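User: Predict the complex with calcium ion.
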Amino acid sequence: MKFNRELEIAKRAANEAADIIQAYRTNQSFDIELKGKNDLVTDADLASEKKIIEVIKSEFPEDQFLAEESNTYTELPEGRIWIIDPIDGTTNFAHGFAPFCVSIALWVDGAAKVAVVFEVAHDELFSAVEGEGAWLNDSLISVSSTSDPSKSLIATGFPYSQFDLVDPYLALLKNLMQKTHGIRRAGASSYDLCCVAAGRVEGFYEYGLSPWDVGAGSLIIKEAGGIVTDWKGGDNWLFGKRIIAGNGALVDFLTTEIQNVFLDGHLTVKG
Ligand code: IPD
Ligand code: CA
Ligand code: CA
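Assistant: Here is the predicted structure with calcium ion placed in the model:
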């Protein structure tokens, strides 16, 4: 399989990072700092990121890195780049609330090739290689075939730092609550995306996410037969900060519902 070595190394890096995170969790001896309002970073995040980069660099010394705690990229460069979230769900981790994940993806010339999301608390390893399918541990996974929104579960992330759009966000949430089986806010977007891939939820949407939040989970969804778009139905979701994912029917449904509140999928509220 192409990218077999990269998959193996990504899994090794995720496992070593998970061991570090578990050790901090067991000892409960981490410092918490704020990068912004409600935007937490712990020394477990920093240690996890250092370990992931170290493991990958030792195998692929020429590769580039876009990692949350040390990132300088505003767009993807040409060539090979690893997109890393050392702990996705830091607020969960800091409170001892699952899930929290390590998220690692290899992108080459703007396309995702390899993805690993390791949910540390439950020891669930999601992975994918372009063109080869998606797995949870050793089992192939696929998105849900439920196309009826009224029989669907939807995942999302609540605004937690910037509250200027909280009212339209709540209006959208109110509509979706009444039209679906319900809404879930797990607190780790990489895990939300993997839940779409594994058919645990039918759809996901959020705004304000960064490349490290979605860089791996997006490939896992695509390889599980799902779709990832921005809020306008386009491809600008890696840096574009607005994402919808799900099976085809639920992506259509969520796009319509979002555009009923946010004008043409922009963060402009319909008047
Ligand atoms: C956060 C989580 C959360 C999402 C936030 C992200 P972090 O990542 O993915 O679910 O709602 O927007 O920033 O900060 O824990 O890596
Ligand atoms: Ca994150
Ligand atoms: Ca993080």
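The chain has a mean pLDDT of 95.
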